[in-house]
Design goal:
The protein is of the alpha+beta class. It has one domain. The chain contains two helices and two strands. A two-stranded antiparallel ribbon has the order 1-2. A hairpin with a 2-residue loop joins β1 and β2. The longest helix is centred in the middle third of the chain and has 37 residues. The protein starts with a strand and ends with a helix.
Length: 64
């Protein structure tokens, strides 16, 4: 069982705390996956613009 420091006392986490910890962990992992997917899509889009022959300045003018 996981431990938590509660007002200077180390104790076992309750079932509710463990359940919330798992919910928070899953939400964090989903957020990281979304951010990585967005970064991959952006990199792909920038590479495609460059493959079309646009310069860095032109790409920056389009996407900011």
């Amino acid at each position: 069982m996981s431990k938590v420091l509660d007002n200077g006392v180390l104790r076992d986490m309750t079932e509710a705390e463990l359940a919330q910890l798992e919910i928070d962990r899953q939400a964090y992992e989903a957020q990281i996956a979304e951010e990585q997917a967005a970064a991959a899509l952006r990199a792909s889009a920038l590479a495609k613009l460059a493959a079309l022959g646009l310069t860095e300045a032109e790409i920056q003018a389009l996407v900011g």
